[in-house]
Amino acid sequence: MTINLDVVIETPENSVDMKAGLESLQGVSDAVRCITESVLSGKTTKRQHHKGKVRTSLKRSFKGSYGQIFSLDIHDDILKKKLNKIGRPAFIELIAYFMSESLYKDSKALSSKAQRVVDELEENAEKIVSQLRVSSLENIHEISSKFDHDIKIRYRQNSNSQTVIAEFDKNTAKVLQAKKSKKTTDLTISVTRLNIHTGNGRLQIQGQWETVAFGFEIKYREVNIRAKKVFSENLNNNNGIKSDDWKFLKVSAHTIKLKDGKIVKYIITGFYDE
Fold first, then answer.
1. Reported pTM
2. Cβ proximity of 166 and 99 under 8 Å
3. What's the pLDDT score for residue 155?
4. Residues in the chain with pLDDT values less than 50
5. How is domain 178-273 classified at the CATH fold level?
6. What is the dihedral of CA 113, 117, 118, 120, to 10 degrees?
7. Percent of the chain surpassing pLDDT 90
8. Out of 1, 37, 56, 98, which residue is the most buried by the measure of CB atoms under 10 Å away?
9. Domain-by-domain residue ranges, the chain?
């Protein structure tokens, strides 16, 4: 089974630096294979081997900004059946979702079929995200960091229809230097998104408009029921009503911060509801 994708490196010429370009292509390959194998097998592997059940194959390049077509190939009947069950549209959603999560971006709401897969992965979903940040992201950003070229990964439905599923540039490269604070910060927040199986979600600080990713300091299965209910009830209470009528939670959290000071995630350590 094959899924066709491509990589577009935004450059005014039809060429890129070979060393940096190859490293970025390697990063894309590793990221796509990591997501695919982890979702379909339920196990997150740290390295992708050339004899693996999930591989990527280079196809032809195309003119314009430097473009390289490649395919995602499944060489295992059990994994093929799992992919067929999920369906290609939902699977492409999942690739886009994990790419966004690895960059601390606010990903699009998933379809019910794709969301069900994430829910079934439970804590393995966070392992996929963590693994992507280990090496794949660094390699993907090689061409952005050294030559300031933006990169897109696209799903090729056919030769006339391509959908962007991930984008990388100098700004997203900053994620590689994100650091967790030692001290905690007190916040007043509302929950805007929550996965009740993984404990990850997004919050909005009172008085601000931008949402930020959050998770818990301990594994979600170890978070007590009271805490889980408080966070899910806050989300349910605020859903569909004006922000002026929102209820808020007081929380303490570590920050994960970029070098420029931007906070990309809060790690919740404690809370009390007002």
1. 0.91
2. yes
3. 97
4. none
5. OB fold (Dihydrolipoamide Acetyltransferase, E2P) (2.40.50)
6. 130
7. 80
8. 98
9. 2-176, 178-273
